[in-house]
Specification:
This protein is an all-alpha fold. The chain has two helices and no strands. The longest helix has 15 residues. The relative contact order is 0.08. The model has no long low-confidence stretch (mean pLDDT 80).
């Protein structure tokens, strides 16, 4: 048990460490062509930004607490 832990701990620490550097295409590859109508070639960071339609902001405020419902004139009992 201890030997397994001694082996897994360094591997877990190694997996958790990551490099932070600017994104770039692999050697010999180019970024995709600029979209139609774009004024310049997009960078890797710009290509990774989601479009506004991919994650729209909420247009209504969520209720923070329970509130009494207003009377609904169209909430009629079933006929019969």
């Amino acid at each position: 048990m201890r030997a397994a832990l001694a082996l897994l701990l360094p591997l877990a620490l190694l997996a958790a460490c990551g490099q932070k550097r600017e994104l770039a295409p692999p050697p010999g590859k180019d970024l995709p062509p600029a979209p139609y109508g774009a004024g310049h070639q997009l960078t890797a960071e710009e290509l990774l930004e989601p479009e506004p339609t991919a994650a729209p902001e909420r247009s209504v405020e969520l209720r923070k607490r329970s509130e009494e419902r207003e009377d609904d004139p169209f909430d009629l009992p079933p006929e019969g």
